[in-house]
Please model this.
Amino acid sequence: MDTKKVTSLRPKTENKKNAKPRKKADPVEASIDLATQQMIKRAHDLNIETVFDRAENMKPCNIGVQGICCKNCSMGPCRLPMPKSGLEGEDNRKGLCGATPNTIAARNFIRMIAGGAAAHSDHGRNVAEIFMKAARKETKDYTIKDPIKLLSIAPYFNVDTIVEVDGKEMDRDIYEIAVEVGEKALNEWGKPEGELIYLRRAPEALYKKWETMGVRPRNIDREIVEIMHRTHIGVDQDYKNLIKQGTRAAIADGWGGSMMATDLQDVLFGTPFPLASEANLGVMKEDHVNIVIHGHEPVLSEMIVGVTQSREMEEYAISKGAKGIQLSGICCTANEILQRHGVPLCGTFLQQELAIITGACDAMVVDIQCIFQNVANVAKCFHTKLITTHPIAKMEQENVIHIEFNEHYALEDAKRIVKIAIDNFNNRGADVMIPKEKGQQIAGFGVESVLYHLGGTFRGSYYTLNDNIINGRIRGVAGVVGCNNARTRHNEGHIAVVKELIKNDVLVITTGCNGIACAMEGLLTPESAAAFCGPGLAEVCETVGIPPVLHMGSCVDNSRILLAATEMVKAGGLGNDISDLPVAGSAPEWMSEKAISIGHYFVASGVYTVFGVTLPTSGAPVFQKYIFEDLQNIYGGMWDLEIDPVKHARKMIAHIDKKRDALGINKARKRVMMDMATRRDLESA
Ligand code: NFS
Model:
């Protein structure tokens, strides 16, 4: 085996005379995860810098953190920091044009929504375009894999699934239905009039709220473009009106672009159903060819999954001295191929450089979103081939290979990529170190499988779930989602929030990097119920055989959470809108614009939503109060910020209890809380 030397990667400044030495992250303070700690140490030994070190050396701009730096024209950037002593009396801060902190923070906030909604929705559009080609049979590599899902969504697009022939009702051809669904779906991005079709999937009361408030999205692209227009210098200068447009774009994301991405991916690649897998860097295998997939769009990675499982490639890998091919994933592409095929998760957003630092990553294949540019620099230090695949996401570094995905040759592209990885196996350095840590998990819970596990067979709804909420075994449901953020200890917030919730009988639904973090910690196994849950939730999980934390997929799959909440409303007994349900949302370690868009569509759908780390609103107290408090009177949901993970979870629980009180189901819970010890105490008194 070639003993290629690991090349060090310190920034050049370190060599300059008098330059301050760069700080290094303390591995234990950087992450709660042992595998991550081990790889950060290894990076230090090899003199390779990672995101954890960069976070030590670059402090965030305090004015940006507060959300009150405006750089939308070149008279600025205008910075309006909060006075150190706080605001006394009138707030006279102004930019050159006179923009107030509220206007600036609201503009910045909704530009983040635009960025997030664009990312999710453009992903959705790409999927819709592939879907259309599959429906028209223009590509041999993609077909309609899940006709049942297609039939279930067709009515929302007003597409008939039955035709009348000679007075008799006949099933329509699946591909004919798919073409019509595809046309209607693609129209949602730019139709000239009307409103998004999927809004009608929301509970009637929520739809009415959106109608009254005038925030029903017209089409997806328009709402995003309008944000860019309104936030241009000299346009919208009323924070309430600005956030109203942010609401429209966020709804277009959650109930539009993201929801269609999820649905059409399910039709093309299959609707997830629970399956067993593993998570963390320990899933990589020293004696296998390791291919790590990273990004968000599953169109190419689906092909790669198929190719790596083929006998041809397996034999080719063996011919090169490997025992086989180990495919694993990072970020949401990973969640996509996990939930449909059980492909193990290699790590979260913050572990992407570390997967390469194992020295065992023969190829990292990336598509779009959440990909560090620095993975190319880290790859340079090893034999790893870094392959970009998407026309909108290239890298400037010369060691990066670009193999542009083409849906007409998707399978061939995938074969080429897998072959590059196999051919690279023998170029590994002698110095391979794969951490042992990995968690077991059951993932792949869609709206449909929750219906199967927690629904009533006869009622075909979320009846059993609601029943357990009403009788108090389950206190409520929380969606805990989102990223990692190098400004806070990796996975600490995720795990502490989730553990506090399940300890208090709150069933957790997870997606994104929170899902990966929970998988790494073993919280996605039915066995974790006995170890970590309150007695009520533990009983339900044990009876039904589900984990207390249900992994629903990637970040576009947060739309599954919206639909699960809608199913809860439909099942009855818990009010008539999502805002009546004892539910709450959380993103303990968020960092991306996508997270802000998600947070806002949850708020606009009636969910109390708490973020950790920081929110770019603190420098504009009036605007912050508006989205933290006043929005509740409009949509029933509102934002909150809580850095301490236990307090974060307790705020969510307090909200859940408030909703239980309002529903009049708090008494049953009190009865459940009378455990044996309490009873014994009462009897002996
Ligand atoms: Ni969501 Fe998924 Fe992770 Fe955050 Fe990035 S992977 S789309 S944005 S970092 S959860």
The longest strand covers residues 289-294. Residues 3-62 form one domain. The chain has 28 helices and 18 strands. The chain has four domains: 3-62, 101-269, 281-427, 439-684.
